[in-house]
Design goal:
By secondary structure, this protein is mainly alpha-helical. It is 47% helix and 6% strand. The protein has a two-stranded parallel sheet. Helix 1 crosses helix 2 and helix 6 crosses helix 7. It is elongated. The protein starts with 27 loop residues before the first helix and ends with a helix. It binds adenosine-5'-triphosphate (ATP) and magnesium ion (MG).
Length: 188
Protein backbone atom coordinates (compact mmCIF):
# COMPACT_ATOMS: atom_id res chain seq x y z
CA UNK A 1 0.00 0.00 0.00
CA UNK A 2 1.11 3.52 -0.70
CA UNK A 3 1.69 6.34 1.73
CA UNK A 4 -0.61 9.30 1.28
CA UNK A 5 0.80 12.79 0.94
CA UNK A 6 -1.82 15.25 2.03
CA UNK A 7 -1.73 18.70 0.54
CA UNK A 8 -4.79 20.79 1.32
CA UNK A 9 -3.37 24.09 0.09
CA UNK A 10 -2.12 24.74 3.59
CA UNK A 11 0.52 27.44 3.85
CA UNK A 12 4.00 26.04 3.43
CA UNK A 13 5.03 24.89 6.89
CA UNK A 14 8.16 26.34 8.38
CA UNK A 15 9.44 23.71 10.76
CA UNK A 16 11.83 25.21 13.25
CA UNK A 17 14.05 22.19 13.36
CA UNK A 18 15.25 19.87 10.60
CA UNK A 19 15.02 16.22 11.46
CA UNK A 20 18.13 14.27 10.53
CA UNK A 21 17.92 11.29 8.17
CA UNK A 22 20.54 9.51 10.26
CA UNK A 23 19.43 6.89 12.77
CA UNK A 24 18.53 8.86 15.91
CA UNK A 25 20.36 8.12 19.14
CA UNK A 26 18.65 6.45 22.11
CA UNK A 27 15.00 6.57 21.07
CA UNK A 28 14.29 2.84 21.04
CA UNK A 29 12.43 2.70 24.37
CA UNK A 30 10.23 5.71 23.62
CA UNK A 31 9.56 4.40 20.12
CA UNK A 32 8.66 0.90 21.34
CA UNK A 33 6.19 2.30 23.87
CA UNK A 34 4.41 4.42 21.29
CA UNK A 35 4.42 1.65 18.65
CA UNK A 36 2.63 -0.59 21.16
CA UNK A 37 0.06 2.14 21.81
CA UNK A 38 -0.51 2.62 18.08
CA UNK A 39 -0.85 -1.06 17.25
CA UNK A 40 -2.81 -2.33 20.25
CA UNK A 41 -6.17 -3.74 19.36
CA UNK A 42 -8.62 -1.12 20.62
CA UNK A 43 -11.48 -0.45 18.24
CA UNK A 44 -11.93 3.27 18.77
CA UNK A 45 -10.13 5.89 16.74
CA UNK A 46 -7.21 7.06 18.85
CA UNK A 47 -4.77 9.96 18.87
CA UNK A 48 -1.35 9.43 20.40
CA UNK A 49 0.17 12.83 21.13
CA UNK A 50 3.83 13.56 21.72
CA UNK A 51 4.28 16.91 23.42
CA UNK A 52 7.18 18.89 24.83
CA UNK A 53 9.41 21.93 24.53
CA UNK A 54 11.12 22.85 21.22
CA UNK A 55 13.92 20.47 20.28
CA UNK A 56 12.81 17.65 22.57
CA UNK A 57 12.95 15.25 19.62
CA UNK A 58 9.17 14.99 19.16
CA UNK A 59 9.36 14.99 15.37
CA UNK A 60 12.47 12.79 15.33
CA UNK A 61 10.66 10.24 17.45
CA UNK A 62 7.47 10.44 15.37
CA UNK A 63 9.47 9.98 12.16
CA UNK A 64 11.31 6.96 13.53
CA UNK A 65 7.96 5.40 14.52
CA UNK A 66 6.35 6.29 11.19
CA UNK A 67 9.14 4.47 9.31
CA UNK A 68 9.34 1.49 11.66
CA UNK A 69 8.72 -1.83 9.89
CA UNK A 70 6.06 -2.91 12.39
CA UNK A 71 4.08 0.29 11.73
CA UNK A 72 4.56 -0.01 7.96
CA UNK A 73 3.22 -3.57 7.99
CA UNK A 74 0.43 -2.87 10.50
CA UNK A 75 -1.26 -0.01 8.65
CA UNK A 76 -2.56 -0.19 5.08
CA UNK A 77 -2.07 3.53 4.56
CA UNK A 78 0.14 6.04 6.34
CA UNK A 79 0.03 9.81 5.96
CA UNK A 80 2.52 12.42 7.22
CA UNK A 81 1.26 15.98 7.54
CA UNK A 82 3.27 19.01 8.66
CA UNK A 83 1.42 22.16 9.61
CA UNK A 84 2.34 25.65 10.71
CA UNK A 85 1.62 26.89 14.21
CA UNK A 86 -1.30 29.02 13.09
CA UNK A 87 -3.15 26.06 11.64
CA UNK A 88 -6.49 25.05 13.20
CA UNK A 89 -6.08 21.63 14.82
CA UNK A 90 -9.74 20.70 14.44
CA UNK A 91 -9.66 21.58 10.74
CA UNK A 92 -6.49 19.53 10.29
CA UNK A 93 -8.01 16.49 11.93
CA UNK A 94 -11.11 16.86 9.77
CA UNK A 95 -8.91 16.85 6.66
CA UNK A 96 -7.06 13.74 7.78
CA UNK A 97 -10.25 11.88 8.68
CA UNK A 98 -11.71 12.76 5.28
CA UNK A 99 -8.76 11.51 3.27
CA UNK A 100 -7.49 8.60 5.27
CA UNK A 101 -9.85 6.01 6.65
CA UNK A 102 -7.35 4.95 9.29
CA UNK A 103 -7.93 4.97 12.99
CA UNK A 104 -4.64 5.98 14.57
CA UNK A 105 -3.20 9.47 14.58
CA UNK A 106 0.17 10.40 15.99
CA UNK A 107 0.47 14.10 16.71
CA UNK A 108 3.46 16.15 17.84
CA UNK A 109 2.97 19.52 19.47
CA UNK A 110 4.79 21.86 21.83
CA UNK A 111 1.54 22.63 23.59
CA UNK A 112 0.31 20.28 26.25
CA UNK A 113 -3.21 21.72 26.10
CA UNK A 114 -3.43 20.85 22.39
CA UNK A 115 -2.44 17.28 23.20
CA UNK A 116 -5.02 17.19 25.99
CA UNK A 117 -7.72 18.66 23.77
CA UNK A 118 -7.40 15.99 21.07
CA UNK A 119 -6.93 13.14 23.52
CA UNK A 120 -9.23 10.20 22.96
CA UNK A 121 -8.02 6.99 24.62
CA UNK A 122 -4.29 7.43 25.07
CA UNK A 123 -2.63 9.86 27.44
CA UNK A 124 -0.27 12.34 25.72
CA UNK A 125 3.36 11.31 25.81
CA UNK A 126 6.34 13.56 26.49
CA UNK A 127 9.81 12.34 25.44
CA UNK A 128 12.33 12.19 28.22
CA UNK A 129 15.41 14.36 28.16
CA UNK A 130 18.52 12.53 26.96
CA UNK A 131 20.59 10.74 29.57
CA UNK A 132 24.18 11.88 30.11
CA UNK A 133 25.37 8.87 28.13
CA UNK A 134 23.01 9.48 25.23
CA UNK A 135 23.91 13.20 25.16
CA UNK A 136 27.60 12.39 25.01
CA UNK A 137 27.06 9.75 22.32
CA UNK A 138 25.01 12.18 20.22
CA UNK A 139 27.54 15.00 20.73
CA UNK A 140 30.38 12.76 19.58
CA UNK A 141 28.42 11.70 16.51
CA UNK A 142 27.76 15.29 15.54
CA UNK A 143 31.20 16.69 16.45
CA UNK A 144 33.42 13.89 15.17
CA UNK A 145 31.13 12.12 12.68
CA UNK A 146 32.88 8.88 11.77
CA UNK A 147 36.01 9.66 13.79
CA UNK A 148 36.34 8.77 17.44
CA UNK A 149 36.86 11.42 20.11
CA UNK A 150 40.59 11.82 20.92
CA UNK A 151 41.25 10.75 24.54
CA UNK A 152 42.54 14.22 25.54
CA UNK A 153 39.13 15.72 24.63
CA UNK A 154 36.98 13.17 26.47
CA UNK A 155 36.65 15.11 29.74
CA UNK A 156 35.83 18.46 28.22
CA UNK A 157 33.51 16.76 25.73
CA UNK A 158 31.54 15.06 28.50
CA UNK A 159 31.27 18.42 30.30
CA UNK A 160 29.96 20.13 27.18
CA UNK A 161 27.41 17.34 26.73
CA UNK A 162 26.26 17.89 30.31
CA UNK A 163 25.80 21.63 29.76
CA UNK A 164 23.21 20.72 27.11
CA UNK A 165 20.91 19.47 29.91
CA UNK A 166 19.63 16.56 27.86
CA UNK A 167 17.96 18.69 25.16
CA UNK A 168 18.68 16.98 21.80
CA UNK A 169 18.43 20.20 19.82
CA UNK A 170 21.15 21.83 21.95
CA UNK A 171 23.41 18.78 21.64
CA UNK A 172 22.94 18.71 17.86
CA UNK A 173 23.59 22.44 17.47
CA UNK A 174 26.70 22.45 19.65
CA UNK A 175 27.94 19.24 17.99
CA UNK A 176 27.55 20.93 14.62
CA UNK A 177 29.52 23.97 15.74
CA UNK A 178 32.26 21.79 17.19
CA UNK A 179 32.46 19.77 13.98
CA UNK A 180 33.33 22.96 12.14
CA UNK A 181 35.76 24.16 14.80
CA UNK A 182 37.34 21.14 16.35
CA UNK A 183 40.22 23.35 17.51
CA UNK A 184 37.78 24.98 19.98
CA UNK A 185 37.67 21.78 21.96
CA UNK A 186 41.43 21.73 22.16
CA UNK A 187 41.49 25.32 23.47
CA UNK A 188 38.69 25.02 26.08
N1 LIG B 1 17.75 11.09 19.48
C1 LIG B 1 18.25 11.90 18.53
N2 LIG B 1 19.33 11.53 17.81
C2 LIG B 1 19.83 12.35 16.88
N3 LIG B 1 19.37 13.58 16.60
C3 LIG B 1 18.31 13.98 17.29
C4 LIG B 1 17.69 13.17 18.29
N4 LIG B 1 16.66 13.85 18.81
C5 LIG B 1 16.61 15.01 18.16
N5 LIG B 1 17.61 15.10 17.26
C6 LIG B 1 17.86 16.27 16.43
O1 LIG B 1 17.58 17.39 17.27
C7 LIG B 1 16.86 18.38 16.55
C8 LIG B 1 15.54 18.66 17.23
O2 LIG B 1 14.71 17.52 17.19
P1 LIG B 1 13.18 17.59 16.69
O3 LIG B 1 13.02 18.40 15.46
O4 LIG B 1 12.69 16.17 16.66
O5 LIG B 1 12.51 18.36 17.91
P2 LIG B 1 10.99 18.76 18.12
O6 LIG B 1 10.69 18.38 19.54
O7 LIG B 1 10.14 18.15 17.07
O8 LIG B 1 11.06 20.34 18.01
P3 LIG B 1 9.92 21.40 17.54
O9 LIG B 1 9.12 21.70 18.78
O10 LIG B 1 10.72 22.56 17.05
O11 LIG B 1 9.10 20.74 16.47
C9 LIG B 1 16.75 17.86 15.11
O12 LIG B 1 17.83 18.41 14.37
C10 LIG B 1 16.92 16.37 15.25
O13 LIG B 1 17.46 15.82 14.05
MG1 LIG C 1 8.90 18.99 15.66
Amino acid sequence: MEDVNIDENAPTPTPTTQVTEEEPVGLEDDADKIIKLLTRGIRERDIVSIFGIPGLEKTTLAKKIFKDSSIVSHFDVRAWVTISQSYDVRELLRIIYKQVTGNRIMLTTRLKHVAMEVKNCTNPYSPRFLTREASWKLLQEKAFQKETCPPELQDVGVQIAEYCKGLPLTVVLIGGILAKRKECLRVV
